[in-house]
Design goal:
By secondary structure, this protein is mainly beta. It is built from 3 helices and 16 strands. It has a 16-stranded antiparallel beta barrel with strand order 1-2-3-4-5-6-7-8-9-10-11-12-13-14-15-16. The protein is globular and about 60 Å long.
């Protein structure tokens, strides 16, 4: 019977120590969450090259976006870009969610990313808050994926980043038995960046394509220069179709204002965007003025000329206003 007090004593000590440890342990930090977003609207004016009855000024809201960024842990970042395009009738997860990504730092420079994210290639970004002009180049619009859904793994160190990825087909939330593979190497410094991206797939698709994209950016004082060269091959019927393109863009800042000049040429043997009825060639020249309006509000005025293999040359003008937070 004398052992009974000891038998009761040890459980009581364990419980007391556990309660003390729980009381002394620091409370976990709350998840760090930030919200960003924008409202983007424009006035688009066809000037020449349009068929009779199709000309007319278009005024409206182009895009509304809310970005949610969370850092629940030091090595984990979660991002969701939710957007809405008022002129689009499509209502689906893929249309409403531009990005849904998780970035994980594995230590020693290694990282893992998964989900849906903006395709890591080229010199032009998707959102108007990141652009120096209103429109996209023919390379971006016809010859590249905008978003990729899959798994990305790589290493990033001082001035160097390399990654490999396995994804669905271009801009597709799901493509059963149609895996695509890719990789990117990027070397950068304070004033210049050069990157090479390769994409191939879908691997089990008869229309499998290969894309090589080389991008270069350079900063010299108030002048920024971008150059992008693209080469693609795609299986079409019994043969292969070649796509190649080049974009050169410069932006000169003076105070809070800047001027952008962009020139592009795209030749797609299978037709622009894979549509033979559009012809195979598109050359464009764009001039844009970016100017401030108020805190968080900016405007862009753009004049663009396009020359196509099919149809007359096209001249358009646009005025865009973007409010961001």
């Amino acid at each position: 019977m004398r052992s009974r007090p000891c038998a009761l004593f040890f459980p009581m000590v364990v419980v007391a120590l556990a309660q003390a440890a729980h009381a002394e342990a620091p409370a976990p930090e709350p998840a760090r969450i930030a919200f960003h977003g924008f409202v983007d609207g424009s006035l688009f004016a066809p000037i020449s090259g349009y068929a009779a009855g199709s000309r007319g000024v278009i005024l409206g809201v182009d895009q509304v976006e809310l970005d949610v960024l969370a850092n629940p842990f030091d090595n984990v970042a979660i991002r969701m870009d939710l957007n809405w395009f008022p002129t689009s009738d499509a209502v689906s997860f893929d249309a409403l969610v531009e990005q849904a990504r998780v970035d994980i730092g594995l230590g020693a420079g290694w990282f893992l990313r998964f989900g849906k994210l903006n395709a890591p290639l080229g010199i032009e970004l998707q959102d108007p808050v990141d652009m120096f002009q209103f429109s996209y180049s023919p390379l971006f619009f016809y010859a590249q994926p905008s978003n990729l859904t899959g798994l990305f793994a790589g290493w990033s160190g001082k001035g160097l980043e390399a990654q490999l990825f396995a994804t669905n087909d271009w801009d597709q939330p799901g493509t059963p038995a149609a895996l695509s593979l890719g990789g990117r190497v990027q070397v950068s410094s304070d004033t210049r960046t050069i990157g090479l991206t390769a994409l191939v797939g879908p691997l089990r698709d008869e229309g499998r394509r290969l894309l090589l994209d080389l991008d270069l950016s350079l900063v010299v004082g108030d002048l920024r220069v971008w150059v992008e060269a693209l080469l693609g091959r795609q299986r079409v019927g019994e043969g292969d179709a070649t796509t190649w393109g080049l974009t050169v863009k410069g932006n000169y800042a003076f105070g809070a204002h800047s001027l952008t000049l962009r020139a592009s040429w795209l030749d797609a043997e299978a037709g622009l965007g894979g549509q033979p009825e559009l012809g195979r060639r598109n050359g464009e020249l764009t001039l844009a003025w970016l100017f401030p309006i108020a805190s968080g509000v900016a405007g862009v005025a753009e004049l663009r000329a396009d020359d196509y293999e099919v149809g007359d040359p096209v001249l358009t003008g646009a005025l865009e206003l973007t409010a961001s937070f």
